[in-house]
Write a structure and sequence with these properties.
alpha+beta, Aminopeptidase, eight-stranded mixed beta sheet
């Protein structure tokens, strides 16, 4: 889905590009760069020693298939045609702690120069909207409130609530969250 929406006035034109197999190489390359920036940020955080950057590099190399092949997708936000933010999602297998027909939000990242424009909210809401349109029942995520305090507050403001651990993410200090749809 592609479209333009204002983001704090016309001077900050926002365009959202959903990555598909036919997405131009320049857009996919920009999304890869943002995904790798996210990974470098995570590695710099306390408790991230078990974060596997090699897996994230493979995920970036395989975009957009790395999320499409998992029943999800990814979005790139551009502000004035400059890559500014990224988010991805994938389908989750139902378990004792995961509701059927659920997605997981992954890799929300907004470049520091573009923070304050509500891009994190816009990207997250775009995934929630797609989940609703796809008939999903819930959206899950994990986050690190200590190092990602703004993201944690954003998720709370958007109606995500703390839940039981639903994955085996080895990074220390995580909180697991869910939003019922």
């Amino acid at each position: 889905m592609k479209g333009e929406v204002p983001c704090h006035g016309p001077e900050n034109e926002l365009q959202m590009e959903e990555l598909t197999q036919s997405t131009p190489h320049t857009i996919v390359h920009a999304a890869r760069e943002l995904l790798l920036e996210y990974g470098r940020f995570v590695l710099a955080q306390t408790g991230a020693a078990q974060f596997c950057f090699g897996s994230l590099e493979k995920e970036a190399d395989d975009l957009p298939a790395s999320f499409l092949d998992q029943g999800g997708g990814s979005l790139l936000a551009l502000v004035k045609h400059h890559p500014a933010g990224f988010i991805a999602w994938r389908a989750l297998t139902p378990t004792a702690t995961v509701a059927p027909d659920s997605w997981e939000v992954k890799r929300l990242w907004v470049r520091p120069a573009y923070r304050g424009l509500r891009l994190g909210r816009t990207l997250t809401q775009a995934v929630v909207d797609r989940a609703v349109a796809a008939g999903r029942k819930a959206v899950y995520l994990d986050t690190a409130p200590q190092s990602m305090a703004a993201a944690y507050r954003l998720y709370q403001d958007m109606g995500f609530r703390n839940c039981d651990r639903y994955n085996e993410n080895p990074v220390e200090g995580l909180t697991w969250m869910v939003k019922s749809l």
